[in-house]
Amino acid sequence: MRVHIQNALDNPLFAMTAVQWQEAADRAGESHSAYALSIGETEQDLTAALAEAEALITPPAPLAASLPLVAPALRLIFCTTAGADALAPFDRLPPTAALVCNRGIHGEKAGEYATMAILMLAMRLPAFISAQSRSLWEPRYTPTLAGRRLAVLGLGTLGGAIAARARSFEMSVTGINLSGSDHPACHRTLPASELDSVLPETEFLLLACPLTPLTRGILDYRRLSLLPPGAGVVNIGRGALIVEDALTDLLFSGHLGGAILDVFGMEPLPPVHRFWRTPNLIVTPHISADDPTTYNPRTLDRFFTALAALRRGETPLNTVDRARGY
Amino acid sequence: MRVHIQNALDNPLFAMTAVQWQEAADRAGESHSAYALSIGETEQDLTAALAEAEALITPPAPLAASLPLVAPALRLIFCTTAGADALAPFDRLPPTAALVCNRGIHGEKAGEYATMAILMLAMRLPAFISAQSRSLWEPRYTPTLAGRRLAVLGLGTLGGAIAARARSFEMSVTGINLSGSDHPACHRTLPASELDSVLPETEFLLLACPLTPLTRGILDYRRLSLLPPGAGVVNIGRGALIVEDALTDLLFSGHLGGAILDVFGMEPLPPVHRFWRTPNLIVTPHISADDPTTYNPRTLDRFFTALAALRRGETPLNTVDRARGY
């Protein structure tokens, strides 16, 4: 079988190697000789490989740049990121190739990032960091997390891991998903249609849902204003879940207590963006969910699992529903 | 019984009230009429009250400013802070009054602060915060905490709570105390005499021990240099545990990866101090262990418990050993 791995030019830390491929094949009990592997970085590499490749492992960006795909033999597109939204609306991908994304790989790290972010907001770290830049000693004492109200929007791998961590700090956790179906780590789970009623009693709002036509801009000025004064916002989902100017305005006005953002509508965040200098806002450069020591091995293990499912005639786990968008 | 509560002029958030006193008396099953309560803020208030007071509830600062004490009836000095080091060497306190400190009240909050600080260092937040101030997008990916090596110096309430939290993130936790006696939250516990052998394998060093003649300056340039390149330091014990210039030098040189400090040799930290502008150093203004919603009620409960022990002829829990210093 011909397999092509496309690495992103701008992210060498996560470039997959032939050695990682062979180690993953060994773990999966697959023979090296059953595969012809190519690895590339440029658009030419990708185009050449797609003439014959039956499986493709790639982050979405290089693929999105090469649409529509001419890939007559392609059966599996394994997208190495958790979300495939950069490829939407999917109509320029070969309809016969399964599109599988890497959902579920980010839980542990994201749970740690969210724990850190919630604790930083609870302890008013953004204000202390700002005070430090002016050499000001301005103590503010804050209660512990026990009993404080967290709402987690999206209960996939990320949201579930975060809810579980929050429970270990005895927070009161409300989960919100499309269906409102129960999640074991949440005290209660509500459907997205009840978001407006949850926001006024939310001290910490954590966004961990995929970006879809339904969630784009879901946190607009009206909804963000429903949060109580002093509330904190954490976004590790996708930047476009939030109307960025609305968030900035509510931080400048002091209605919101703080925000910690790891994802943005445009990444890298442009140097002129207001976010860099918005009070009580901390920017991190999309690092909340990636662990370089385990990312490639786990991703390749998932690729082999998806391939085995296809061979059995099954739908691989994490196959993107092209209509739903994730 | 005559009881005097002395509140600190500079910290009104934690000022105790007569209502809090009465509620605590009710919880302790004590009759209000058995006590004559005075509450004061000024040095004159304290001096006047000490002429007759049998019990005194106070932070150490106002007391330290009034030494030597003229307090002929005093049987109990209940110090509302965890450490009584500000009153050392204790020879100007009435020798017949028990000196009890408020050790153990700070565990939960300190565990949360330390968790936040360790996660911030692990995820290189100090570098991101510095990058944000220059509008720079500079991703650095970091592994999760699982398996990473934490050393906790001091295994009292703070250190024990921190070790337990770190275990929940699957860190490898080494505890260090005077005796080296086991602690249930640590994978291993070593005596302070083995500190030099622990430091080279410590990725995160957390200081949570009292300030005594033995621990003053224990983290000097030589010992801090034993930490491996990139290590992080968190101090929630007392500022003078660390030789501050040594820490600053090792952060400027880049040998240490970062530090998060909540306590300082001089507080408030003077505006000219190097710490305000040291790279990869975050300053918080001594807020790591105080929770204003529960502090006074819990403190007063502990006062009544100490008083009951004295009445039974017992030594109250948390009586300061004047020779040992805590």
| Low-pLDDT sequence parts of chain A | none
Rg from alpha-carbon coordinates of chain A: 21 Å
Q: Write the CATH homologous superfamily of the largest domain in chain A.
A: NAD(P)-binding Rossmann-like Domain
Number of helices of chain A: 10
**Subunit organisation of the chains:** homodimer
* Helicity of chain A, as a percent range: 25-40%
Strand content of chain A: 15-25%
Distance between the termini of chain A: 27 Å
The average pLDDT value of chain A, as a whole number, equals 94
CATH architecture of the largest domain in chain A: 3-Layer(aba) Sandwich
Q: How many individual β-strands of chain A? A: 12
* CATH third-level topology of the largest domain in chain A: Rossmann fold
CATH class assignment of the largest domain in chain A: Alpha Beta
Most extensive protein-chain contact, per-chain counts = A-B, 50 and 51 residues
Q: What is the domain total for the residues of chain A?
A: 2
Shape category of chain A: elongated
Secondary structural class of chain A: alpha/beta
Helix-strand sequence of chain A? EHEHEHEEHHEHEEHEHEHEEH
Concise synopsis of the structure shown:
2 copies of one chain form a homodimer. Chain A is an alpha/beta fold. Helices cover 30% and strands 16% of the residues of chain A.
Description:
The structure is a homodimer of 326-residue chains. The first copy, chain A, is α/β, with parallel strands linked by helices and 326 residues long. The first copy, chain A, has 2 domains: 2-105 and 290-311, Rossmann fold (3-Layer(aba) Sandwich); 107-283, 3-Layer(aba) Sandwich (Rossmann fold). In chain A, 30% of the residues lie in helices and 16% in strands. Chain A has a 7-stranded parallel β-sheet with strand order 8-7-6-9-10-11-12, with helices on one face. A 5-stranded parallel β-sheet of chain A has the order 2-1-3-4-5, sandwiched between helices. In chain A, helix 4 crosses helix 6 (157-168). The longest helix of chain A has 17 residues, at 295-311.
